[in-house]
Protein 1
Amino acid sequence: MKKKTRLIFLFCILVMSLQVYAQQSLSDSIATDRYIKNKTNLTILASWAGVNMVQGMVSATNAKGADKYFFEGNAYWNLFNAGIATYGLFQLKKEIGKKYTLAENLVAQQKPEKLLLLNTGLDLAYITTGLYLRERGDRLNNDRANGYGGSLILQGAFLLVFDIVQYGNHRRNGKLLEKEATQLQIMPTSTGVGLVYRFK
């Protein structure tokens, strides 16, 4: 009887180990995918910022009227984007090789999703402000307001599309993790109550 109990116990430990390994593998693959997505997106933002700063500064010296302020606005705005991208890439280095539990991964996954939703609202505010400045510039014949307004519309529109695409990609990973979390259930077992991982 004792031998049989031991065999059952060892079998249960083996099954639980395989279940935890399967869970950790999925969790790790999603963490790796999140890292790659974040690095790619920050690199795209840095590239966009670099192109806009160089092109904006060069074009502003040769342009006149509202166009001059449009290019100036693009250059100034992307100093901010370049700072965000640089900081983000620096912070991302801390995640290389990091291992996550399922709970830690769920929390880590929610951070970019919430940030991107907030950014989407800000992007709409940038576009709205740009439209207001353009209208004011046209009404008052003000080249500065007109040019900066056009710049805000362009930059806000780029960031809006950029953030929505990022959110969609991250949300797919979030759904996978949430599905994984629902497969962990507290259930009665033959020896009492335990945490059971349900394969589907």
Protein 2
Amino acid sequence: MNHLQRDTNHAKSVTRIARLLRVFMYILAAIGIIMVVKRTLSMEGIIPNFTPAGVTPFDSGFGEHPVMTFLHILPGALFMILGPMQFTPGVRARHERGKHWTGRVFLVVAFIVGVSAIGMPFVMLPIGGVNEAAASILFAIIFLVSLGKAWWYGRKHHVALYREWLIRAFAIGLAISTIRPIIGIFFGVSGLPPQVFFGTAFWIGFTLHLMLAEVWINYTRQIGQAGH
């Protein structure tokens, strides 16, 4: 097999995997938006807050600090809406000028999400205690560094590097939607109280997403697939 054929086959493989990843991206973004709507309605008392018997209501801390909570989750909803647009080729091709504006707004709301994520554990103790707080703060810092790098390389018109750092940031941001099913699995099979496994679920979700982001970046880097 010659080099041209290998490159062609690799490009086709990248395209197929990219389509599958976009499907998962849309699903996780939808979960994130639903989480924001649910938490908002729960905090307002419109819907009941689901909490297992014998456990402190999950939204009690958020209800006691509504300003900090909404400062985090409302930009988070915009993050979940605008994020997929940055990685959908059809949207970028049809709305080139709009892409630049949505990209700027996306970076702004993402920075708000990251900064508020660092501040929240100091305002309200997370359900998973120090373990969850440590995971949230560490990955929020990585998230903000990635956003800063993406912004810097975007200003310098280094498209490939901008893409790579934006992928890292968005993958970390999307992890919050993957953490919820992981928590559900712990509830179903571990028999442990949420104070024990919430932090572990955060570590697993964030680490998994960052690892997958690195695998995808390295897999696509050799052919410069900036559109995926």
